[in-house]
## 1
Amino acid sequence: MLEHAISETDLDRIVRMFDGSNLIVHGFDGVIQRWTSGCEQLYGWSASEAVGKVVHDLLDTRFPADVEELRTEVRNNGSWTGQVGHRRKDGARLAIVTRWTVLELGDPDTLIVQSNNDVTLMQQVEDELRERQAHLQSILATVPDAMIVIDDKGCIASFSTAAEQLFGYSAHEAIGQNVSMLMPSPDREAHDGYLDSYIRTGRRRIIGYGRVVVGLRKNGTTFPMELSVGEAVAGGRRTFTGFVRDLTSRHRIEAELRQSQKMEAVGQLTGGLAHDFNNLLAVISGNLEMLEARLAEPGQLSLLREAQSAADDGARLTSQLLAFGRRQALAPKELDVSALLGEFSDLVQRTLGDSVELRTIIPGRRMSAMADKAQLQSALLNLSINARDAMPAGGRLTIEISGVEIDSDYAGMYPAIRPGRYVLISVTDTGTGMTSEVMERAFEPFFTTKPTGSGTGLGLSMVYGFAKQSAGHLQLYSELGEGTTVRLFLPRADTGKDSHPDEQQAKDAPSLGTETILVVEDDARVRRVTVGRLLTLGYSVIEATNGIDALKELEAGHDVALLFSDVAMPGMNGDELARKVRERWPRVKILLTSGFSEPHAAEKEIQAGAGWLKKPYTASEMSTRLRLLLDARHGCDPA
């Protein structure tokens, strides 16, 4: 800026000296008085065309603020610098960094000298970089694999959205920390040594290929993961990018597949043995019958009949083995399962005794399935006896019949079941429950936790075989101290006789929403399906793997409209979480879900107004239940 007055001659000399630069001289009224050759090349107008024009009109200037405000700043401060938009003679737009400087001529006239620099190309490059960065961020925010970038010291430089969800740390918490925080011992202590060794020697352990390792979440839980690491060197700086895939679901599916294959092998073995044993029993029983016809002495006949009774027991035992091995001949026909249970309930109650209350929940319409009536009755009786034995001090047994539709999302979590319509028979007791170890072996033939002589260990295995042979499915849910639910899925017999308006309503388009739902589920597969369904319905979703993380999400101030939580979770269960949420955030609606037919562990919260949704559920059932809760007035019981 020139701080003293100059003459017109001096101004002309200055303009000629900087003729190659992009200088424009104009008054506060904007009328152009000087226009250099540099401006002619930049804008396309000659000096004769430009001089006398109002500069802002000629160049169609786009200011970052009101032009009068800028002129006031120039008068007060003597200069102004900023970025504006200009138009060339050919119509092209330019990004210009301009500096305005006040110039005094020694008389009342005051001029402004514009010094303009074309930054259009730089602006385009910056815009492209921002666009690419936004595109990259959108990819990283949506891919299921987590991405973590570290420097050569092992410090985290980037932490994707998927990494936040997987490990439980926010990007703000993770960036700048050593990546070993995501590893359990002894990998945590050894990591920096591995990294240092690679940088010094080039000896690779993980870099360049993937391997299965163990990850450590913020809440202290570990999980299997596949880690692939890539290396990049730019500007003398070395970075490592790790892609992490959670293998929890895959390992669980593989374990279920191995268990299924094991049960298949055991079934083939037991079926074969039972078939051969039946042949032996046929020989023994036949000869005993012939001997009985020839003996006349009462004492000998008594011994013979005892032997015949033992042979009959053996035949029944082999029949159960054949059922498990799926070699028992069935006589399937269309059955109204609701009617069958109504007829059969008296026998079940007599089997249970006076100390166990029997509760049956039967829909008021026909529920048809293709099944062997005798085998289904036997299966229900076996499940009832098992439930009775699990309640030595008495309790309640609930048998519920319902219609369900398994979609591809749910079937994807359980390879043994196919999508379709099923009659679901849920048998729930309030007994002692099972440990995870017992649950893993519950369907194995001859496995029992009962005292010696109190059972063969074939009850559940027979039901398992019956379900498989009937093209159905069997699921087991149990919690120590809470009870057990066995769920028998039998394919629906679609004859058209069991249609009902409620079922048509269930097939209607699910209800949509825009509220924020906090999903709390420790099973990663179930959580992914639930979140996917909610997003499809239009809801915003926040995920948590346990009760502690769910409370932290609420404490963070998220505008959560509804808590959708599993009941059976490690640590803080869904009932305890619901109670804390109800006390601290009373306006947050609560929907609890579980594989149990009855909400034993959450009865108080259900009574306090929480909703209940039994697994498995369809997207339509879930959306309907959500809207009932969200649309209800605060404090009303939506049940």
## 2
Amino acid sequence: MHFLCFLSLLAASASAQYLVESSSFGQNDQISSKNDAVSGWHTLGEGQIPQLLSDKIILTPPYPGNQRGALWAEAMVSQSEWVAELEFRATGPERGGGNLQLWYAKDGRMNIGTSSIYTVGNFDGMVLVIDPYGGKGGGIRGFMNDGTLDYKNYHSVDSLAFGHCDYSYRNLGRPTKLQIKQEGNAFEIIVDNKLCFSTDKVKMPPDYYFGLTAASAETADSFEVYKFNLFTSRSITREEPRRAQPPPVGQPDNRGNAPPPEAQAPPTAPSDAQFNELQNRLQTMAQSIDSLFQEVKQLAEKSEGRHLELSRNVIAADRLSSMDQRLQGIEKTVRDYQGQFSSLQSTLKDSHSSLVEGLPKHMSDSMYSLTLPNCRPLVILRS
């Protein structure tokens, strides 16, 4: 019996994993007690700085879009075998977009910063990319570089992936658990406890840094990070073993029979951390609402301007239509008068012809001469 316990202890010791606290955060579901910094990590951003809450880090907010956020570990990884665990969540509208990168690179904070796989230049290391590539709801791909290839100017970055798997990561309503394992000759990527892809051709060297970068599209996806844990197979200074310690050999384990500790009464009032988190969330909501209000106001002003312009165009069109109707009436009146003028001209012409033809005859019939003594003839015209 003692021999079996001893073998169990040897097996447990051989498979023990130790948490590297200097490169980990999110233990006990807490990121930062003061919501101002993540111990052992640098925060970077373009357009905004990642928002730190008590239980998560918002790398890219849901609004506005085209934002970048990054986290880089201050301490390099000194071991050659390790397991990295990331818990994240991505939410957004139906046509939202963005990407999340998990880096293991040399001098990542200085050489990579907030870049994505499509905007980074020369880097030395490995990166996992979570994005909608492939059109199947998303996927996870692995890329490597030895510092000689400029990804930003490469004609087909997507063709450089050394491994991939399809994974619909958006709007799951829960965090996704992503693991990278480098143990022995195996390099494995595991998502939600299922193998994504593996290879025996990859062996990353020590003394590199872990980092996270996220970028959102114009219609933004929000990337939230809940936890990052780094485990090694060897314990170093200030690291605690991941596994629970078994009882000494030969001593019965009475933990199952021990009376449970006295349950603590639930707090009657929120803690300071909860108040700070609530305040931060309210501030974020207020900023988003204010931005939306400003956009709605601008749209309303543009709409009013277009309405006035259309109104002026409609009034001008009405005036043109009225003038056209008046011109048509004038043309009709002119045509009517033209007919009357033609008839009058014909009548006058006929009257003139009759007068010209009958005037000599009438003058010969009505004219006679009166002869008087010693007087000149008197011509009398009959009326």
## 3
Amino acid sequence: MDELEARIKRLIVESLKLEDIKPEDIASDELLFVEGLGLDSIDALELGVALRKTFGLTIETVTDDIKLHFRTVESLAQFVRSQQKDIERHVA
């Protein structure tokens, strides 16, 4: 597991106040919603806010792409990396 995935796992647990789950209990490829970790749409909104604040992301309204990005910790990490690369390109 890379450091970004570890940060995202901690962010999930802390921002959603998941008292019975530790970051290390979340597999990077585990589905975050419904049959996986069991998060719901309210959790998605709260997680989106936490991701924006922590990583400075731009998250559009709910689209199929966003649903794919929020599927697993791995997909969230890829999304964060791609957003950070876009920011770096605009700054350079």
